[in-house]
TrEMBL record, chains A, B:
SUPFAM superfamilies: lambda repressor-like DNA-binding domains (SSF47413), Periplasmic binding protein-like I (SSF53822). Keywords: DNA-binding, Transcription, Transcription regulation. InterPro entries: HTH_LacI (IPR000843), LacI/GalR-like_sensor (IPR046335), Lambda_DNA-bd_dom_sf (IPR010982), Peripla_BP_I (IPR028082). It comes from Streptomyces erythrogriseus. This is LacI family DNA-binding transcriptional regulator. Gene3D superfamilies: 3.40.50.2300, lambda repressor-like DNA-binding domains. It comes from the Bacteria. One of its GO terms (molecular function) is DNA binding. CDD domains: HTH_LacI (cd01392), PBP1_LacI_sugar_binding-like (cd06267). Residues 8-62 form the HTH lacI-type domain.
Amino acid sequence: MSESAPRPTLEAVAARAGVSRATVSRVVNGSDGVREPLAERVRRAVDELGYVPNQAARSLVTRRHDAVAVIVAEPETRVFADPFFARQLRGISKELTAHDNQLVLLLTEDREDHARVARYLAGGHVDGALVFSLHIDDPLPGLIRSAGLPTVFGGRPHWNGGEDGVRHVDTDNRGGAREAVRHLLGLGRRRVAHITGALDQTSAVDRLDGFRDVMADPDPALVEEGDFTAASGERAMRALLARRPDLDAVFAGNDLMAAGALRALRDQGRRVPDDVAVVGFDDMLPIAEQTEPPLTTVRQDIEGMGRLMARLLLRDLDRGTAPAESDVAGPSGVVLPVTLVRRDSA
Amino acid sequence: MSESAPRPTLEAVAARAGVSRATVSRVVNGSDGVREPLAERVRRAVDELGYVPNQAARSLVTRRHDAVAVIVAEPETRVFADPFFARQLRGISKELTAHDNQLVLLLTEDREDHARVARYLAGGHVDGALVFSLHIDDPLPGLIRSAGLPTVFGGRPHWNGGEDGVRHVDTDNRGGAREAVRHLLGLGRRRVAHITGALDQTSAVDRLDGFRDVMADPDPALVEEGDFTAASGERAMRALLARRPDLDAVFAGNDLMAAGALRALRDQGRRVPDDVAVVGFDDMLPIAEQTEPPLTTVRQDIEGMGRLMARLLLRDLDRGTAPAESDVAGPSGVVLPVTLVRRDSA
DNA sequence: GCACGCGGCGAGAGCGCTCTCGCCGCCGGG
DNA sequence: CCCGGCGGCGAGAGCGCTCTCGCCGCGTGC
């Protein structure tokens, strides 16, 4: 216990094994060129001394850190209100640890934080970055790109019409929306409304686009903007009912808004799904299961999304330190499939 | 763009300012002993070159990393099912960044992960650790303590009867439970039941103790064990109703179980709060607000808990690198107050 | 006016590692 | 049997920083 024993160095291991530092280094890093009996002796010495390489010293020369930053913009809002974020982190974490990388978490809320993050990234503490930036006016992506670090974005970035080489992974928001609306039509519903999410986020825009794909020229009175909160869903539902009392289905941009809509419908005495069928998006547990009735919704693989982001980034990191814009191999954007989960609300 | 410009070193700044490395170092690290005009010249050189210290090189000599590990055990279960975790992280993050420390997130699920974490901590990559370990048989705390790193635990650790010097911060689970039950009694309820959380977690045990404090020798038939999930709450509520159909109130160990209980009560045709009053714990949003009726519950300051944990740890780190068991100043355990939030369920 | 003290600054060592280079011993071919 | 080649290993430099130490120049006291 006393004074924390000074950690053994490469030198110490070398001395104990009766070899040079270089040889120990070779063994520890698994490079070949060391004959078996010697290697074995080194390994024993490592065990006996409980040697663990000093990462700082190693980074100093290799310029690798085996660490990536995960940057989450605006934890204030939706991101932190639901388990979304935690699931994604979990996926990322799994993938990173499987490749012996550390996860450095950076939560940002205001401009000041952005400067800090930019400085941190420029400081070269990490090898790459995974970024979640939701809003359209967020300066963060720009800062990050200019830091020149390999980066993968979560969700389709705003400035990316589609294929300009910005690495990202997204959920098939548009396809999922289409599926949700088609399901409602398949139920025989004809006057399907949509409550959008906050339209400064691409996920909301894409879901709205999916709705329009299927409804082809819907009555504008059947679309109402929300902001992904339950309260906004409730308010939007009321507005919708006021404008189109005859509506018989609603597709909400997420489960939280669907829950709000459910409440508004109940207040107005509409039965779900008999009078109005409701479909959500996300399959956010436990919300989706706890509503009355349980929510039919579009499930996305959050954890898988996290894993994939990490995997993409690690791949870039492996292929040489310089991921020049040009020679990116593989698709720059990946879209994950979704599945419709049928419960009782539609 | 081309090849990422080789980052400027101390040497470069020194050359530009026409001083020695030592002087630049002094200025950069804010130590005094450099006269103003010179210091100013150095600062200009730093700006012009966009110099950012190389953390690896610095750590190599200082043995500080300005980084703290946050270790979350078993993200599988409850931790990840609710926004609890994210809130706590947010508090931690705020406090850490305010002190220029990085947050390294370690998520663990199985034994193998534990070994990895132990190795990581022993590897001296971080200056301290913040640990969330829920379950009684978790080997993690032991591993961490033996790594000899300054550590603060989230929640009361199992092996700690109270005051044996293990740094931790906890919510006033017992006090909150008492308050909840007293509230029910104040409403005139007399046959108050309790649905416990998973009793291998101290929070569940403490809440049960609080219940007992007030109910003084309650009918054992009025206590049913759950596991913090909504499903368990529903099941427990049914069992309780079967045994004591005359019960007129229930205190659930958390909001999720309260939501489950609400559902069971509704199924059995009991009105809430008229027939049976319900109180939860956590004030987990958006659950607590979305139930029917909205839940009266005990709110804890999750984010504050995170902040406090970080603050405690940073304090330990500042007072010399060796936080010998003995000379810990200040209380080893801190308990955060809770408040009862009255909504409609009780 | 001279010695002494003190504060500002520079020189240099060294943190623990990686990696290049060159040496040495072993093999095969002429 | 000698020489060239090659693979295994050690020596040493150097990554970018901090920090101790000592030098130098100035101000002060007698």
